[in-house]
What does this fold into?
Amino acid sequence: MFVYGPPAVGKLTVASLLAERTGFKLSHNHAIIDAVVPLFDYGTRAFRELVNRFREEIIETAVRERINFVMTYGYVAEEESVVARYVELVGRNGGTVLFVQLAATWETLAQRVTLRSRRQHGKLSDPEPLREMLDRWDFTATVPFEPNLTIDTEEHTPDAAVDEIIGHFGLAQS
It folds into this structure.
């Protein structure tokens, strides 16, 4: 399960609930980033290469070991080839990727980015850098792979979003 969208849209909240209700494991995007950023500045070539290599190894090994998992990701259109590689790794090892895009307006993202829970996870927590990120990259892009479900997190509570995901993809609950 690949849950993606802009910062502060609710990826970790929805993914955590989804993992809890389905028995899937959770691969939180920042767990990998946090392991790399002490040595390599965020966004540098070395940082991106290492984070991507870690993700590929985790994805391939988990699928090979038949571990169902939810992965959170801040997808932008320029990363289509990166996600295509993840899909290829999953497929080569007998798995399937289900995509869930979470969306919200700028006003909602700007409000949510300041929540204390984001700071506890070492995430971006200031609206100004968020605005700069959103101006620089298009986080509204939909991955060009199927199956794909889009959920507006302003219209859905986290529980309702998870209900929608489980129902749409026919997932079993644990």
